[in-house]
């Protein structure tokens, strides 16, 4: 199983408009293929039932549910806090929340990490200080694993900036959970990601004879190959967020 990329949605049932199932289904309809189940305050049985419901929504498009914490709740993908456990459990996908270089240096067998906060966030007001794009880029270059940018990502322009800084995607909570139309919001963010990783000359209307020295962004493979040139990592990266996993 490949680690997440593109637009990754973090759940927040207490702020989800119209119910968490509806919001996640809307985000999936808008192109999201990775969802991280949080809701750690729920009893395990209720959380496991919620995990089963969300997996059913994702299954129709070949998506993956990642569970926050060491217990995968019947799955095989987890996202761990920076505090532990160490060493990480052996699952098909293991991610970890990181916030600075010291935490990135502790990573061992994790497949990816989130790095936050990139910008001030409404979900955790006052949390920071924010890294900004320069700080994100610096940590991407030094990280041993692919990084998802987290914290305050709400607009397509921010998604583009994160990808251009080297992140393999963005992790989003508030922008999707609070959206009046989660499908439209997810689609706009996902489209920005796809645009950012699409080689310039493959886009409609691009000039086929344009000089490689003028006006080109770095070529970034989007299907089954590595983002090494952009992120500095040798691990294979997943396909774009708009394609279903094989």
Task: Give the neighbour order of strands across the main sheet.
Answer: 1-2-3-4-5-6-7-8
Discrete helix count: 8
What's the structural domain tally? 1
As residue ranges, the low-confidence spans are 208-232, 234-246
Structural class: alpha/beta
N-end to C-end Cα span: 10 Å
What is the overall shape?
globular
The biggest sheet amounts to: 8 strands, parallel, barrel
CATH A-level architecture? Alpha-Beta Barrel
Radius of gyration: 17 Å
> Strand-and-helix sequence, N→C?
EHEHEEEHEHEHEHHH
Mean pLDDT over the residues: 86
> In CATH terms, what is the fold-level topology?
TIM Barrel
Would you report the number of β strands? 8
CATH homologous group name? Aldolase class I
Helix content bin? 25-40%
* Assigned CATH class: Alpha Beta
Percent of residues in beta strands = 5-15%
């Amino acid at each position: 199983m490949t680690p997440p990329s593109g637009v990754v949605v973090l759940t927040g049932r207490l702020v989800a408009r119209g119910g968490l199932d509806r919001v996640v289904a809307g985000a999936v309809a808008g192109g999201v293929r990775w969802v991280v189940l949080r809701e750690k305050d729920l009893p395990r049985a209720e959380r496991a039932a919620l995990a089963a419901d969300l997996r059913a929504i994702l299954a129709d498009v070949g998506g993956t549910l990642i569970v926050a914490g060491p217990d995968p709740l019947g799955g095989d993908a987890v996202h761990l806090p920076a505090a532990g456990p160490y060493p990480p459990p052996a699952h098909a996908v293991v991610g970890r929340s990181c916030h600075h270089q010291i935490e990135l240096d502790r990573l061992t067998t994790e497949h990816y990490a989130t790095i936050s906060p990139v910008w001030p966030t409404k979900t955790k007001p006052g949390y920071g200080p924010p890294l900004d794009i320069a700080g994100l880029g610096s940590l991407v270059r030094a990280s041993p694993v692919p990084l998802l940018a987290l914290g305050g990502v709400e607009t397509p322009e921010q998604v583009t900036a994160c990808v251009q800084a080297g992140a393999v995607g963005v992790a989003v909570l508030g922008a999707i959970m609070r959206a009046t139309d989660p499908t439209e919001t997810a689609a706009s963010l996902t489209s920005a990601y796809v645009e950012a990783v699409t080689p310039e000359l493959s886009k409609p209307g691009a000039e086929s004879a344009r000089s490689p020295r003028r006006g080109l962004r770095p070529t970034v493979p989007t299907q089954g190959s590595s983002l090494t040139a952009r992120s500095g990592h040798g691990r294979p990266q997943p396909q774009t967020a708009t394609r279903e996993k094989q």
